[in-house]
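user: can you give me the structure for this one chain? C-alpha cells are fine.
assistant: on it. calling the predictor now.
[tool input]
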Amino acid sequence: MNHLMAGSPIQLYTDSSPNGFKITIALEELGLPYTLHHVRIDQGAQREPDFLRLNPHGRIPVLVDAAPGITLFESAAILLYLAEKTGRLLPSAPQARWQALQWLVFHAASVGPLIGQRVHFELFAAHPNAEAIERYRRLTDEAFATLDQHLASHRFLAGDAFSIADIAHFGWTHIARIIDFDFSHHRHLSAWHERVAARPAVRKGVTLPAPATGA
C-alpha cells in the first residue's frame, strides 16, 4: 500500500476503479487531508484479512475517519458522509438537496450496477453471451438517455451546483469513455461530462492511486 499525506485523520483504502475515483475526487474537491492506501485488486489485496476487517464484503473503497471513529464502505455512503462532514457538495435548499440525493440513489441503484454488468459481459466473461450483452447495452443506454434528458435543462444533476451526485455518475462515465462505451449521441450528458472532467480536483482525483487503463 502507498501512504500519502501520512498522519492524516482520514484514511482511504482504494484502487483505480470507478467507485474508487468517486472518493478521491470528493476528497480533492473538499481539500481534506487524507492518507491514501492502494488496495491492489489485481493482486487480491481486497481479500486479505486486514482489509476484510474494514469491509467484510471485500470491496473498495473504504474510508476510515479516526477522530469520530467512523469506518464506511460503499461509495454512496462515503460521499454522503463527506458532504455532511463538511457542509459542502450537497445543496442545503430542500428541492436541490433532494434532487442531489435522488440522482445519487439513481446512480447507486441503477447506473453503476448496469454499467458494471455490461463491463463484465462485454469484456471479461469467459464465455460471451450475446443476449446478456444486448440486454446491458440497452439498459445502460436507457439510463444514459434518462440522464441526458435531465441534463438538457440542468447544468449539473441537482441544478446549478456541482454535487456528490455528479461525482458519483462521473466515476462511471469516466470509465465508460476509457473502455469505449460510447455515449456521445447523448449530447447533454456528453457536455456535462466535459464540464465535470475539466474541474481541477476531478482531473487529479482520477489519477489516484493511479490512472485507469483500458480493459
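assistant: here you go. The helical segments are 18-30, 49-52, 75-86, 94-124, 130-151, 164-178, 187-197, 200-205. The first helix runs from residue 18 to 30.
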